[in-house]
Amino acid sequence: MKANAHRGGSLSRRPEPGNHDPLPRLFPRRLGDNLPSTTTTESLFLFVIVVVGILVVVAGIAWLKRTQPQESERKLNLLDADRRHKRAENLQAEGNYAEAEVEHRAVLAIRQRVLGPEHPDVAQSCYNLAQCLKAQNKCPEALAFARQALEIWTKKLGADYSFTKDAKKLVAELEPAQ
Question: Whole-angstrom Cα distance, residue 74 to residue 111?
Answer without folding.
Answer: 10
